[in-house]
Amino acid sequence: MAVNRTPFIAGNWKMNLDHLQAIAFVQKLAWSLADAKHDAADAEVAVFPPFTDLRSVQTLVAADDLPLAYGAQDLSQHDSGAYTGEVSGAFLAKLDCRYVIIGHSERRTLHGESDAEVNAKVKAAHRHGLIPVLCVGETAEDLEQHGASAVPVAQLRAALEGVDAGKGLVVAYEPVWAIGSGKAATPDQAQQVAAALRGVLAEIAGEELAAATRILYGGSVKAVNIAAFLREADVDGALVGGASLDLDEFSSIVRFKKHVGA
Ligand code: PGA
Q1: Which residue from 13, 239, 244, 245 has its CB within 8 A of the most atoms of ligand 1, so it is best to mutate?
Q2: What is the number of other CB atoms lying within 10 angstroms of the CB of residue 246?
Q3: Domains of the chain by residue range
Q4: How far is CA 220 from the centre of its chain?
Q5: Is 174 a catalytic residue?
Q6: Does the pTM of the predicted model rise above 0.70?
Q7: Mean per-residue pLDDT for 48-61?
């Protein structure tokens, strides 16, 4: 992790916690971090609850002025219209979301999201002032056939086609085989792919922007392995799934600098 990039710890709740549970969780998370005197300069913290929780999270964060960011797990590539079940980036912006996850592997595989759709969603996020947390990653089969970085690099190029990355971007490298499997990539693997992704960013958007963009690792991140990832030069944080639903575990991940002396 480079000194000029604030580490980013993001909790992807997936389809867990209703709005009442979300209120309780966010409140406890904020207390836990305040208790531990967490310094926002050590890590920016964001949660990504289901759509139905966002209004409650917004109200709580605003009322108590909590040092937490939040965002949605997806958005529509369209702004409004006859798209039953879709959620516009305009609505997310109205809820003061700062971020939106785009192209998570569960969207790509379970919902057949193509690179072209991911690209359209990145543009939609930017139209509404939202920062995409753009997920890329290879399957176990891709890894065997093409090595670790080929697929994530191709996905990144496709997602950024015609995009002004200067409008805000976070990239999350999430090997599909590591998600929810308990088998995280090694820090060295994560570093290699993160460096390749930063190289692509430099090529597309220039060195300065590439150096300022945070690249996260995701896939079975826990309190015991977070510090090793963050020691790598090009890994600037984590997108955390399962462990983000466990308050002690997640708050320990956020405080990675303190508890493991990274
Ligand atoms: P995991 O999920 O931490 O449960 O592996 C990560 C993700 O899907 O973003």
Answers
A1: 239
A2: 15
A3: 70-88+99-243+252-262
A4: 14
A5: yes
A6: yes
A7: 98
